[in-house]
Structure formats: structure tokens, C-alpha cells
Amino acid sequence: MLRKNWLLGLFLVIVLAGVSACGGGESEAGDAPSEAASSAPAEEDAQAGAEADLGDVPDVVAEVNGEEIGRSEFEQAYEAQLQQAMAQSQGQTPDQEQLKKQVADSLVSTELLVQEAEKRDITVSDSDVDKTVGELAAQNGLQSADQFFSAMEQQGMDRDTVDDQIRTQVAIERLIEDEAGPVRASDKEVRALYDQLVAQQEQAGQQAGQQQELPPLKQVRPQLVEQVTSQKESQVAQRLLGDLREQGEVVINL
What we know:
Triger factor/SurA peptide-binding fold; 3-stranded antiparallel beta sheet; 68% helix; 9 helices; mainly alpha
């Protein structure tokens, strides 16, 4: 069974953020177009002109402990990442050969983690998926699960595909928790991150000739806790992946 892409699972939030922003209602400034709005068509045209270079992609992109990652799965992941890279670079086409390798490597990482989750009998129920869908919808300003799935359909992802991606993501999150135990951000870690961001903001302000200040720590603490927790989970995942790659059999055919 081919595994859906963890990258796309993360990409759901990015896509939905854009959908939510586009549907956010009329500007308070009236009919006068903003600079961002006036430049949007040009960026959209640049992104529309980007074509995925997939001519040299083999039918089997990679093999992970006997499980194949096929061309169709790779293409879906690659096209999503190409769109994201184009958006971040304001329409400039990235190095597609390098991007292919990154996407293939991420697919392999996902497969390794999912296989390990299965070995540990980590399961995800339909109710778990439904709960996650509700959370994603709320986080992105959508009113219901139906709106969430409608937004995904507009991005070319049907309900079964989205369900499968979410199921994979939740399984991986539970694997990381099983590996490291509950991951928490200490007050010291949150303060250190805040001080780091303050220093960066001050430096940026000096370079721009403008005074810039972060909100008080108390105000941004939830976001900082989330960022510290995410960083620690990522470190656990990388250590686990290193072990799984060393112990497993991985062949990438790109």
C-alpha cells in the first residue's frame, strides 16, 4: 500500500490559510486596491506559468523496506511543493532537480515513520480523523468540516486523499510522542526563544532605520510554546529517522 505524503499533510494548513485569507471579506479601506492585491495577479500568472519537470521520474521513485513509492504519489507531492516554493519566491522557479530530491527524501522519511508506527501498533480511528479535521477547519477560519473538504477539493484533493493524509500525520505525531513521551516547553526555553526574537527584531529595526518591538512575552507566550514544542518534536523525529534509515533498506531511484 502506497503511503500518502507527510509533506502534503503539513501543506494542508498552508493551503487552507490561503483559502481563508482569500475569503475574508471586503477591505475596510473601501474600493482602493492595496499594493499586495494589485501585485497578486502578476504572482498568480508567474505561478501558473511554472511547469513541473517530471519527464525523468521513474515508475518507482523509491523503495523503503520493500514498500514502493510510485510515480503518481511523487508527482502529487512534488507539484504541491513546487507551488509552495513558487509562492515563497514570488514566482521564481526553484531548482527543480534539487526539489525532486528533497521531495523524494521526505516521502522516504514519511514511509519510514509510518512503518515504525505500524510496528508499534499505533492506530488512528475515524473519530481521531474527524477531530483533526474540525481543528484544522477552526484554525483556518472555516465554519465546518464540509467547508474544509470543499477547500481541499478546490486544491485538487478529494475527501479520501485528505482523510488518508490526516490519518498518516496523526499516526506520526503519536509515534513521536511514544518515542519521546509528552513534549513540553519549559519557562526557561520559552524565555530564551523570546529573548532571541527580541534581539533579531532590534537588529532588523536598526538595519531598516525603524524601531520595531515585539509584543510582551505574556501576549505571545502561546505561540512561543507551540514553536518550542514543535522544535523539540522535530529533533526527536530526526533522531528516530536517523536510526530507521541506518537499520532499514532504502533505495531512491532519482
